[in-house]
Amino acid sequence: MDSITQITLGAAVGVAVMGRRTAVWKAALWGAIGGTLPDLDAFIDHGDAILNMTRHRAESHSLLMLTLLAPAMAWLVSRLHREPASFKRWWLALWLVLITHPLLDTMTVYGTQLLQPLTDHPFAIGSVFIIDPAYTLALLIGVIVALSMKSARALAWNAAGLALSTLYLAWSFCAQQYVTQIARASLQQQGIEAQGLLVTPAPFNTVLWRLVAMTPTHYREGYYSLLDDDPHIEWTLHDRGAALMSQHGHDPYLARIAAFSHGFYSVSLDDENLFVTDLRMGQEPNYTFRFNLGTDAARAHGGHRPTLAGSRPDLERALPWLWRRLWGERVPPMSFMSERARPLEP
Predict the structure, then answer these.
(1) Is the domain of 113 the same as that of 210?
(2) Of all helices (H) and strands (E), which one includes residue 236?
(3) 244: which of 53, 73, 140, 327 is 20 to 30 A away, CA to CA?
(4) What is the DSSP string of 97-157?
C-alpha cells in the first residue's frame, strides 16, 4: 500500500495496543515510524530496473526478519522514553506494527516476499488497489480523534477505525471472489480456455474490477462493475508475444518477470529492442512496469541493463472513464485507443 496508508495503519495499531500505558502521541509516533520502516528498501539500488522491482518487498517485508527486529526496537523505545516496565507491551505493539505492514501489502497485487529467506515467492491476493481512500480514511479519522481527544472514548474511535478498515479488507476479498466467478462464467460462455485469470480492483475502489485472462498466445482484458446491470463481460484481445517468449525464454531478466508476475506478462519487440511487461499493474495500453531489455546484440555482449519504460494513462481521460465505468456505464475500454487491441465478439 501507499506510504500514507502504512504510516496511518502503524499509528493506529500502536495506539490500540499501547492504550493508556503511554502517551497516545508516543504510541502513534513509533507506530508510524514502524509502519514505514519496511518500505525504506525502495531506496536501495540493486543495479537495474527489474531487480529494483523484484527485490522490493523482499527481506524488509519478511515476517521472520521483522519479528527479530521488534524486540530490539522495543528495547530502544522503552529506554528512550524511560519506560522499562512497558518493554513487553512495546514489544507486542511494535511487532504488530511491523508485521501488519507486509500483511497489508499482500492484499495488493504487487507481490510481497513474506517468507524470506526461506523462499522468494511473492505472495499477492490482489483484492485492494495500492491506494484506496475508503480503507485509509477510517484509519486516519480514528488516529486523529485519538490524538486530539483526551477522554477514554478517543481510544474507542481508534479501535473503530481499525475494525472498519479490517472489515473493508474482508469485503474486498469477498467481492473479488464474486467477480472471479462471474469472469470464469463469461470465459466459459465465450469458449475461452484461460490458463490464468487475474481479478484485481481498478484504481481507488473495490466496485470496478479489472480482469486479465491468459492463453498461450494472447491475453484478454475486461472490466466488471458491481453496479453493472448484467454479468456480460466484453473482452479485448492482445498479443502476448508467444514467439518472442519461446525465442528469448532463456533470458534471466525475462524469466524473473515471468516468475514474479505469476505468468501475467507479455513480450514485444520495438525498434529491435526487446520489452517485457508485467500485465498486473496498469491497463491496456499503459503499464507501470514495462522494461526495455535492449537489442539482441547489446544483451549478448552484456552491454545493456534493463531500464524502466513504463507509462501511465492520461488522467484527463482515464479518471472520467473510470468514474463512468464504475457506475455501470458500458463505455468502450481505453484499450481501443491502442492499435494493438481489437474487441472480441460476444
Answers:
(1) no
(2) strand 236-239
(3) 53
(4) HHHHHHHHHHTSSS-B-TTTTT----B----S-S--HHHHHHHHHHHHHHHH--SHHHHHH
| Tally of domains within the chain | 2
- Asked whether residue 336 falls in the same domain as residue 231, the answer is yes
Q: pTM for this structure? A: 0.92
What is the chain's pLDDT, residue by residue, as a tens digit (346 residues)? 999 999 999 999 999 999 999 999 999 999 999 999 999 999 999 999 999 999 999 999 999 999 999 999 999 999 999 999 999 999 999 999 999 999 999 999 999 999 999 999 999 999 999 999 999 999 999 999 999 987 778 899 999 999 999 999 999 999 999 999 999 999 999 999 999 999 999 999 999 999 999 999 999 999 999 999 999 999 999 999 999 999 988 889 999 999 999 999 999 998 889 999 999 999 998 999 999 998 887 777 766 789 999 888 888 889 999 999 999 999 988 766 444 434 333 3
Rounded Cα gap, residues 215 and 187, in angstroms: 11
Pull the grid cell for residue 14.
500502536
- Expressed as residue numbers, the domain containing 287 is 179-343
Q: What's the rounded Cα separation, in Å, for the pair 127 and 255?
A: 25
Write down the residue that cell numbers 505493539 correspond to.
Answer: 93
Domain-located, residue 228: yes
Domain co-membership, 192 together with 330: yes
Judge whether 84 and 21 are in contact, CB under 8 Å.
no
> Could you give the angle at which helices 87-106 and 24-36 cross, rounded to 10 degrees?
40
